[in-house]
């Protein structure tokens, strides 16, 4: 498998980083934890869901928060329209309504173990917000070896059908992500290239 089948950077996609972090800081809080889908390896969870999940705690937490579940309506954010235009070739994201349904924050404290996202999506579109300095890695189950790693310094599409994760993450890793893709990353990459939206093919 080629690295280009695992990741595709989209450095030209612009987004308002600070506004997104502001929304996350408002709703990724104990007050709104009923809206969040959280997982952890802490046996005390969920009673203790919001204690400090730092590296020192020895526990990890992974939390998803969908825009569609927020009490405030953000569907007129330019970002929603921009994503729908970028992925106009994908039936799963071709309207602003579909994008809004699929958009979520992924808030990780500590290690993100290797996993696959099946059956939820064939690939992801991720936008880094906080603490994404450690590279995302892909792992071969067949050979028990590292297949690839990619810096997460800007928006990128990532293959989520192959084992992937960020075992080296220690502190907080917050990014925006898009659920629901059914197309293959390679097909979409080729189409975006043919449309002149990206340079990688
Ligand atoms: Fe994943």
Shape: globular
Please tally the helical runs, counting DSSP H or I stretches of 4 or more residues.
Answer: 4
Helix percent reads: 10-25%
Major sheet characteristics: 7 strands, antiparallel
Bound molecules: fe (ii) ion
What is the oligomeric state here? Answer: single chain
Explain what this protein looks like in three dimensions:
With about 200 residues, the protein is an alpha+beta fold. It has a single domain, classed as Jelly Rolls, CATH 2.60.120. The protein has helices at about 15-25, 80-85, 95-100, 185-195, and strands at about 5-10, 35-40, 60-65, 105-110, 110-115, 125-130, 135-140, 145-150, 155-160, 165, 170-180. The strands form 2 sheets. A 7-stranded antiparallel sheet has the order 1-9-6-11-4-3-2. Strands 5-10-7-8 form a 4-stranded antiparallel sheet, with no helix packed on it. Strand 7 and strand 8 (about 145-150) form a beta hairpin. Helix 2 (about 80-85) crosses helix 3 (about 95-100). The chain is globular. It binds fe (ii) ion.
What's the arrangement of secondary structure elements?
Elements: E1 7-9, H1 17-27, E2 37-40, E3 61-66, H2 78-86, H3 96-102, E4 103-109, E5 112-115, E6 123-130, E7 136-140, E8 145-150, E9 156-159, E10 164-166, E11 172-178, H4 185-194
Helix pairs in contact: 2-3
Bound molecules: fe (ii) ion.
Residues 115, 117, 160, 164 line the site of fe (ii) ion (FE2).
What is the structure about, briefly put?
With 201 residues, the protein is an alpha+beta fold. It is built from four helices and eleven strands.
């Amino acid at each position: 498998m080629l690295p280009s089948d695992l990741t595709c950077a989209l450095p030209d996609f612009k987004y308002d980083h600070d506004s997104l972090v502001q929304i996350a800081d408002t709703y990724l809080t104990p007050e709104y934890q009923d809206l969040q889908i959280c997982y952890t390896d802490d046996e005390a969870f969920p009673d203790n869901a919001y204690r400090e999940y730092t590296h020192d705690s020895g526990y990890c937490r992974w939390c998803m928060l969908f825009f569609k579940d927020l009490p405030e309506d953000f569907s007129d954010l330019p970002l929603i329209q921009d994503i729908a235009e970028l992925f106009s070739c994908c039936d799963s994201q071709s309207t602003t309504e579909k994008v809004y349904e699929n958009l979520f924050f992924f808030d990780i404290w500590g290690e993100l173990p290797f996993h696959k996202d099946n059956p939820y999506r064939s690939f992801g579109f991720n936008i880094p917000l906080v603490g994404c300095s450690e590279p995302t890695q892909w792992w071969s189950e067949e050979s028990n070896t590292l297949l690839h790693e990619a810096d997460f310094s800007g928006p990128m599409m990532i293959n989520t059908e192959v084992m992937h994760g960020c075992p080296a993450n220690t502190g907080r890793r917050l990014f925006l992500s898009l659920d629901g893709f059914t197309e293959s990353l390679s097909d979409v990459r080729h189409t975006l290239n043919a449309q002149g939206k990206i340079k990688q093919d």
